[in-house]
Amino acid sequence: MKTDWLGPDFPKGKGEQQYRPCVGVFLINGDGLVWVGKRDDGSGESAYEYSWQMPQGGIDKGENPEKAAFRELYEETSIKSVSLIEAAPGWFTYDYPPEVAANSRKGKHCGQAQRWYALRFEGSDGEVDIMSPPDGHSAEFGEWRWERAENLPGLIVPFKRPVYEAVVQAFSHLTA
Question: Distance between CA 34 and CA 110 in Å, rounded?
């Protein structure tokens, strides 16, 4: 996929493989806690020991990254009652480990380049519906909770941990 619409600062891939353009959402509630969901591979469990993550997903070709963040949040959580606080500066990248890179869907990408957005949750917890996502999307999470930002890197799969550390640092002034 060509990524020209994402601008000249979109990270270059490795060899023939490009980074998959993605967004992430750092959703903060009124108590300064951040939304995380426990990944579910369809069996009620996750394939990984560290399976909690913030909402994230791919940017559609030609889509504005900020709009993609709102769309991904809604598709994964049913949450619409949010407002933009700020975007993290630049793109954060990680490379797929061999066992993930071998997945046929991800075989054409070396990893992900993510734009992260801090959003303020303005609704009530009853708005969250991870079991019946809207518009026919499959459930990606089996559980969810609000978590302290500094704990987030320890909950994610190790290959994504440096990105989570950078995201928590970028938005640390919002949860202090």
Answer: 28
Amino acid letter, residue 117: Y
Tell me the per-residue pLDDT of 122-174, one tens digit each, with 9 for 90 and over: 999 999 999 998 988 889 999 999 999 999 999 999 999 999 999 999 999 99
Tokens read off for 8: 């000249």
Q: How much is the pLDDT for 48?
A: 56
Spatial contact of 50 and 44, defined as CB atoms under 8 Å apart: no
Sketch out the chain's domains with CATH numbers: 18-175 (3.90.79.10)
Which amino acid makes up residue 147? E
Phi, psi of 115 (to 5 degrees): -100, 130
Q: What gap in Å lies between CA 64 and CA 13, rounded to an integer? A: 20
The answer to whether 150 and 46 are in contact (CB under 8 A) is: no
CB 165 within 8 A of CB 56: no
